[in-house]
Every structure is written in structure tokens, then in C-alpha cells.
Design a protein that fits this description.
Blueprint: H1 32-41, H2 50-66, E1 74-82, E2 90-103, E3 109-123, E4 127-140, E5 148-163, E6 170-185, E7 191-204, E8 208-220, E9 223-228, E10 231-236, E11 242-244
Antiparallel strand pairs: 1-2, 2-3, 3-4, 4-5, 5-6, 6-7, 7-8, 8-9, 9-10, 10-11
Length: about 240
């Protein structure tokens, strides 16, 4: 049975406990908008980000119930995720999931503990990224009466990037996302709400280190509000497009 990865997760969806410190950056380094683009790419469905991962989580949580996965059983799966033919944004990821079903005192499904490791790459109009990462999360809301799954977890990604607007602006980047009470509609597998803390750190070949901290608020309807180092953006989770407010 196929199981799930939560983003991000180039994603995940999703990422360690964040120390909330104000990032600083040189004027010629990776800009706030560049960092926002990296985060958006790590979340959007057209780069196999947190949006896809959350859908996988919801579907596979439902599958674990319908296929009568035994309480306490751990299931491991390896899958490949690729973009559809002709897509403007491309991705290719190998994912290894390990998922354990936990039951309550009545021996009914209560939550799933999901662990993930992955490697791969994605590319869109603004940047290309080769990365690997891990995810650890808990998926609750498995009872038949619950209309949403609730996810709490940690997403980490690390790799190398290149910003296409400036071929010299390349280097390494780490993306960390910690989600809290991420709600996913069981019927549609669409993110309905929740929050997250985020951090992007890294270094460029010629221009030094950078650090950005922020928060995410999932608004539903494939839209997320992100505050990054004091600047607010709206992210389209379907396309990865960002609008500065």
C-alpha cells in the first residue's frame, strides 16, 4: 500500500524547531523576494511541494483505514513522483515512507506517525533546485466522524539552487518548515487551515550567507499568507506564484 510524505514538502511539506531571530542580509545577497520564491517553490503543487504532500497524507491515511491496517503496524514504501508531460515547472523525486498506525484504548485508529526521506530536483521559471530532505509528522482525525485530518510535523530540505534571473546567484539553501494544526479536507484533500514557522538559510558562491525567518497562515482555497522578515506575501499553492502586499 502506498503511503505519504507531508512537504513539502519540496518541497512539505513542510522542519526543525525554529529559533525566532531576525535575519540580516547584504544588499547584493539573496533578496527577501528570492527567499520567498524558494519557499513558494518548496510548497507549490507544480513543484511537488507541501500541497501535494498534504494530499498524499490525507489519501493514504484514508487508505490505511479502508485496508484495515493493523494497530501498531509499520509500513514502508518507496515511490517516484514526476511532473506531468509538458508542465512548465518540472520535478522528479524519490521518496521512502515509513508509517505506523496507532490506535486508541478502544483499539480504533487514532493517528499515523509518518517518517520520510527523499531526494530529487525541481525547476520553475525563477529557480532550479536539487535537494534532499526528511519529514516527521503525526496525522490525526482518523475516526469516521472527523471531516478533516490534522497534521503536526517537521519538514527539512537542503540542497543547491540557482536563480535564473542572475546566473551568478547560486549556492546552497536549507528550508525548514514546522506546521501546526494543518487541517486537510478528507473529501478534497485540500489544505483548509493551519499555521507554520519557516526559515531559509544558506550561502551563495560569491555573496555570502543569508538567513530569513517567517510565518505561514494557510487560508484555504490554495492560498497562503507568508510573512518573511517583516514583508508579507500571498502564495498561490497551485502555481507557486507570489504577490507582495
Amino acid at each position: 500500500m502506498k503511503y505519504l510524505k507531508l512537504s513539502i514538502i519540496t518541497a512539505f511539506i513542510l522542519s526543525g524547531i525554529i529559533a525566532c531571530k531576525k535575519g540580516t542580509i547584504a544588499s547584493l545577497n539573496v533578496s527577501n523576494d528570492d527567499a520567498a520564491s524558494i519557499l513558494a517553490g518548496s510548497m507549490a503543487s507544480n513543484s511537488y511541494g507541501v500541497t501535494n504532500i498534504s494530499s498524499d497524507i490525507s489519501l493514504n491515511a484514508l487508505n490505511s483505514i479502508t485496508t484495515n491496517l493493523s494497530c501498531g503496524l509499520t509500513k514502508t514504501d518507496t515511490i517516484i513522483r514526476k511532473n506531468s508531460a509538458g508542465a512548465t515547472a518540472t520535478y522528479n523525486y524519490k521518496l521512502i515512507y515509513s508509517n505506523k498506525l496507532n490506535c486508541n484504548t478502544s483499539n480504533l485508529p487514532d493517528n499515523i506517525i509518518s517518517k520520510l526521506t527523499y531526494t530529487g530536483n525541481y525547476s520553475n521559471q525563477k529557480l532550479s533546485l536539487t535537494n534532499s530532505g526528511s519529514n516527521y509528522c503525526t496525522i490525526a482525525g482518523l475516526t469516521p466522524t472527523a471531516t478533516v485530518h490534522v497534521v503536526n510535523g517537521e519538514y527539512k530540505s537542503m540542497g543547491t539552487f540557482k536563480l535564473k534571473a542572475d546566473s551568478t546567484n547560486r549556492g546552497s539553501a536549507n528550508v525548514d518548515i514546522v506546521v501546526k494544526n494543518l487541517t486537510i479536507n478528507k473529501s478534497t484533500q485540500v489544505i483548509a487551515g493551519g499555521t507554520a514557522t519557516v526559515i531559509v538559510t544558506g550561502t551563495t558562491v560569491k555573496k555570502g550567507d543569508f538567513t530569513y525567518n517567517g510565518t505561514l497562515t494557510f487560508n484555504g482555497n490554495n492560498m497562503t499568507t507568508m510573512s518573511l522578515n517583516g514583508t508579507t506575501y500571498i502564495i498561490n499553492l497551485a502555481t507557486g506564484d507570489i504577490v507582495k502586499k
